[in-house]
Amino acid sequence: MSNITLYHNPACGTSRNTLEMIRNSGNEPTIIYYLETPPTHDELVKLIADMGITVRALLRKNVEPYDQLGLSEETISDEQLVGFMLEHPILINRPIVVTSLGTRLCRPSDVVLDILPEPQQGAFTKEDGEKVIDESGNRLTTFE
Known about the structure:
Helices cover about 30% and strands about 15% of the residues. The protein is built from five helices and six strands. Strands 2-1-3-4 form a four-stranded mixed β-sheet. Strands 5-6 form a two-stranded antiparallel sheet. β3 and β4 form a beta hairpin. It starts with a strand and ends in an 11-residue tail after the last strand. About 30% of the residues are buried. The mean pLDDT is about 95.
C-alpha cells in the first residue's frame, strides 16, 4: 500500500470522485479535511511548489471571500494570497493529492490517475455518469 494524502472536501463532487479513484487502486489515503484542518504556511507553500503551479492557480475564485477581499487585484502578492488562503481555507482549490509519483491539483479528478502508484482494479464511473475506467482497469478518458 502506498502512502497517499488527499486534501479533501467531502461536499465537492470532484474531490469525492478523486477519493474513489484512489480507493479503486487498492489504496486508502490519509484524508486531510483541509477546511477543518488547513495546512500550515510552510505546507501550503510546499504543496504549491511541488505541484509546479502558481499561487493564483490554486486560488478558488467562485467563493464568497474572493470578491470581498479583492483578490482579483494583480497587486496582491503571492505571500498575501497564501495568507488569505490560510485565513479562509475555502479559497484553496481542491482536491490536492500527494503520492510518491507527484503532487497534483486533481481538477478534473482524472488527473489523479497520473500519479497513482498502483493501477485501477476495476471499472469506475464518476458521479455524473462519465465512465473513466473499464472493467479491466484501463483508462477510458484522456485530457491535456
